[in-house]
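Dear colleagues,

For the upcoming journal club I promised to circulate an example of a predicted protein-ligand complex. I picked one with adenosine-5'-triphosphate because it came up in last month's discussion. The inputs are reproduced below in full, followed by the predicted structure.
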Amino acid sequence: MTATDTRPGGQEILLETVSKVWGAHKAVDDLSIRVPAGTFTVLLGPSGCGKSTTLRMIAGLESADAGRILIGGRDVTHLPAAERNLAMVFQSYALFPHLDVAENIVFGLKVRRMARDEREARLKRVAELLGLSALLDRKPSQLSGGQQQRVALGRAIIAERPVCLMDEPLSNLDAKLRHEMRVEIRALQKKLGFTMVYVTHDQVEAITMADQVVLLNGGRLEQASDPRALYQRPETPFAARFIGVPPMNVLPGALLAHVDADLAAHKVGLRPEALTLAAAGPLAARVTSLEYLGADMLIDCAANGATFTVRLPGDHDIATGTEIRLGFAPQDLHVFDGTAGHRRDDLAMAAGARLAG
Amino acid sequence: MLIRSREWVHAWLLLLPALFFLFAFTHVPAVMTLWNSFYSTPRGRRPARFIGIENYERMIGDPVFWKVLGNNLWFALGTIPTSIAIAIAMALWVNDRLAGRGFVRMAYFTPTVLPLIAVANIWLFFYTPGFGLIDQAASTLFGWPQTNWLGDPATALNAVIVVTVWKEAGFFMIFYLAALQAIPPSLVEAAKIEGAGRWTIFWRITFPLMMPTTLFVSINAVINSFRLVDHIFILTNGGPDNASSLLLFYIYETAFKYWETGYGATLTVAMLAILCALAIGQFFFFDRRVHYK
Ligand SMILES: Nc1ncnc2c1ncn2[C@@H]1O[C@H](COP(=O)(O)OP(=O)(O)OP(=O)(O)O)[C@@H](O)[C@H]1O
Ligand SMILES: [Mg+2]
């Protein structure tokens, strides 16, 4: 049997104006998302923004207070978790401590009364895929964190469900293991072709794994797009500052009013790595502090009361207190509307043209 | 070296008060009981004399001993599984999110707080032939004739069993409630996602994870089935014809009603031996099935 034979194929997930209210607090507020079939979508956002709540509503572990949830075109809003035909990996792994690894993995198959031969065959395949073959009769307490993680993954993929949900599955692992598992999970998802919804608050995880990143803030959708677009064309100052280390500098447009008077009422965004030293650059600033990082250095600057960070490659002979001038490529200028907050490409284009000209 | 021995002295001084009472009221009497079981009962000017295993021979030949032992077995079988099952059911029920949960929990726990003597007196009224609660209900609902539940050898022990279950289930419920709350909710959620229904979740997840509690509760229940006899004094006094007498009740009667202290000691040794055997047996029986975290 080849891998392509076992592809469960994904199902599309659709959230239509879904809300969840705890008392007076709106944990999820009028959220609409489309997760295309077979893709890897990451729910990203700061702590408490409603990622887990959203995921649990998709899973059926939490009921939606408003809106509809569709999986594969079927309205599942009022179906219990057991009938939604999906798999889930919990942050704590939620392995059954009294069952051994094999029993943990085939739990769902047994519950659904799959024939023994088929069950054993699948178990063998999954154990080989995840490198668990030697551990099948251990109890979860006798496994390392990474191995437990694999068992949880095994339990999720063995039933070959069309949808898999994961809530911060890597947050208990060390940095190296996290990197390995990231690659592994992504490869697994591509190979088996299921639809993945993955929760994290780690932007590196989001950027490296996702086909689509759904950025949440305070229960509301901030931006949903592929990772490149999220970095290159953030829709809001929040999205701009959430992705990228150090975060994008979002500054009052008045700083660049001498370039284009239209900017004065808006906000401009410049990534630290987009700024360069330029004797005739449009931005004059004074260096307030320096941080040497080896491959590059971070320079904190102040200009007209605004502070921002510049990231320069290599080593530069700059002292604190010096006056410098900075420039940037026209396409690296982001402009956000002063009142509504959304992206203003028209203003950025115009200002860019003046800079270039 | 000196400091070491000083620490030892302190340690023993601190332990001494507890040890004194433990020995005075537990260990010494236990050994004395074993000792006395090999002696005759002193009467008047006739002191106790060593008679070897004569008391034990008497016990083997005593039909009342076998009768109360049988009663005790039936009593244990009647109370333990039932009270554990009811305790689990109540714990599951009050662990759910239901309105007035605190009140229901308190209601279930009330029988435990009441003294057994008081409970027995309440039930004495329930069982009263003719106008007791049970007879009234039975006659209006099913038209049954008046029954003397406590006075009939066929029903006396069962009537006592019902009172015991009613009294104990609420106590065991507390342990199961604690066990249920110690199970991470994500385990149940994971099982739900895997397609398990309530029944499967209970038998494959909840119940196995509560095994340590079941072991603890069942050992306590076994000990209680030999230990709890207070209500028998009120309800039946062991009668009719020893139909509801239990081993400890028989020991009490022998030792303190008929003042046959030698034979009483022998019966006590027999009871202790049975209890030890049961407790050890339970540990081995459950050992393979109990998952300790
Ligand atoms: N059972 C609950 N009862 C009341 N409020 C809740 C409950 N669960 C979550 N909340 C609230 O809903 C909001 C969103 O919670 P959620 O768990 O979805 O956050 P999250 O994005 O997953 O955060 P984290 O990254 O810290 O896990 C939070 O403000 C939280 O306090
Ligand atoms: Mg969360």
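Two points we might discuss: Residues 62-287 of chain B form a domain with the MetI-like fold fold (CATH 1.10.3720.10). The interface with chain A takes residues 184, 186-187, 189-197, 200, 204-205, 208-209, 211, 291, 293 of chain B (CB under 8 Å).

See you all on Thursday,
B. R.
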